[in-house]
TrEMBL record:
Residues 9-128 form the Purine catabolism PurC-like domain. The gene is cdaR_2. This is Transcriptional regulator CdaR. It comes from Lederbergia lenta (Bacillus lentus). Pfam families: HTH_30, PucR. Residues 469-524 form the PucR C-terminal helix-turn-helix domain. PANTHER family: CARBOHYDRATE DIACID REGULATOR, DNA-BINDING TRANSCRIPTIONAL ACTIVATOR ADER.
Amino acid sequence: MKSYITVKDILGRKHFENVEVIAGVDGLSRLVKWVHVVEVTNIRDLLNGNELILSTGIAWKEKEGNFVYLLEQLIDSQAAGLCIEIGTYTSLIPQEMIDIANEAQFPIILFHKEVPFVKITQDIHALLINHQYEMISNLERYSQALNKELLTFEHHHEILKCIQQYLQVQVIIVFSNEETQFIPEIIGHRRKTLLNLIARNNDTMPNSLTHTSRSIAKIPIHLLGENYAELIIMSDERTLTEYDQLILDRTATALAQFLLRNLYVEEKRRVEETEWLNGWLENEKSEESINEYLAYHTPHIKPKGALVCIYKLDTLAKMTNVDLTYFKLYFRSIFEQQGFSLFAIEKRNTLVFILINERMAVPWKERIEEGIHRLKSSESPMVNHTFNQLIGIGKYEKNLTSLYKSYETALETIRIQEKLPNRSDSHFYDDLHIFRFIYLLNQQLNLNEIVYEYLESIIHYDKKYNGKLMETLKTYLSCNGSKQETAKRLFIVRQTLYHRIQKLEKLLGEDFMQPEKRLVIEMMILSHEFLTSSKQTEELDLEAF
C-alpha cells in the first residue's frame, strides 16, 4: 500500500479539474498531511509542515513584498504547496515568485475558476483520515503476517526482504561488529556513497527521518541490554513518512525476536558441545565416541594426534561477546593455517583450545610456535588488548583418548608460569624442565627451608649491604666459572669480581664450584626465584582483590 499522499495525488481529486501548475513541478511528490486556508501573511508559527495551502491572495493584494514574505515562510516551514484562486483578488503571479518557487521545488497551483474551499478541505481531510485508518489496518496486517512468517524463516535476510518489498526502499543492517549488509545487495561506488551518508547522519538523526537528497530512517536493535545492530531504510525517490517508521519499528521488533531465538539455539548448542568437550578433557569419552564426534564436526580431517592449549586472560571478564567471538575466530584462523583443527571452551577466566593435528610434514611444536608468534605480533587492537595473558601448552598426545593428559599438563604449565619471574618465556610443558621438578618439590616439602639452608647467608648479606652477591653467583655459574665473561656481563672490573668471588667462597665454602655442590646451588637459585615470584604474585592478587 502507498503509505503517503502527495500533491500530485491531490491534483486528481474533485475541484482540481481546472488548475495550472505554474511553478515547482519537481515538487509535486511532496507529502500532504493536512489542508489550510490562509489569508494572512505572518504564518510561520502556524504550520507544522506538509500542509497544502489554499488562498485567494487577499493578504498580499497589490503588495508584491507581502507575497514574497509569505512564500518564503511557506518554503521554510516545509509546506506541501500553495493553491491560489485567480480572479477575485489576484490576477497575475510575478515572475520573481515563480523563480523562487522553482528553485525550492515548491508547487504553486492556480485555480482559474472560483472553487469552494470548504468542500475542498472536507474532501481532502476525509481522504487523509481514511488513508490514516487504512494505514493502521495495513500496519496491523503487516505485523501479523510478519510474526506468522517468523516461525518459518531460517535467516534474518528473509525478514529484511519483507520490509524491502513492502516499502520499496533500500534496506541496510549494520551490526555492532561493523559488518554491514544491503538488501538488495549493492556494490562499488554506490555502496561506499551510502555508507558515507549513514556515517554523516549518525550524529544528526538518532532514530528519526531526515530531509536530504535521500530520505533515511533507522532504529537500533537491542538484545539482552546491548546494542546488537541498527536497521536502516533509505529512499532516493520519496520522503519517508511516519508510516515507514512504524513499519521499520515492527520489523525491528520481529528481527530482534528472530535473532534472540537464534542466539538461544546457538547458546544451547554451544552448552551441549561444551559439556561433551569437557567430558573428553576429563577422560570420560571412549575412542569410538571421539571418532564419531570428530567425523561429524570435522569430516575432512584424519587426526594425527592432539594437544591442549590454555589461554588465560586477565581481561576475559571485561570482554564483550563480540570481542570474545572475534578473538576465538582470529585464534582459529591462525592455527588452522598451521595445520590444526580447533575446538574452544570457556572456563572461568581461561579459553581452552583443543588442537587436532592434521599434518606430519613439519613438527607440531614448530607450527605452534609460529602460530603464537603471529598471534603476539598481530596489529589488531581487538587481539592486542588481550595480551596481559598466559599461554600453557600441554603434552602432545598421539592417542586421542589420552587428551586428558595434555589438559592436565597444560593446567600445570599455567600454574608454574604464574610463579616464574619471566612468565612469557615458557609456553610448553616440555620446556619447563627443572621448574616442573621445583613445582612438585614445593608441593611436597618446605622448599623455602631448603633454599635458606644453602643461600641464607647470601640473601642476608645482599639485604644488609646491597652487595649483589646473588646476581654475581648466578652469572658466574651461567658462565661456567669464566671470570672474564662474568665481569663483562655484570659490567664490572675484574678486581670487583674477584672481591665478590672471595666473599662467595667465604659464605658458601671454597668448594661451591665442585660439580655436585654447584648443581644443588644452581637449583636452589632457581627455587629462590620461583618462590620469590610466587610470593609477589600472591601479593599482587591480594591487592587486586
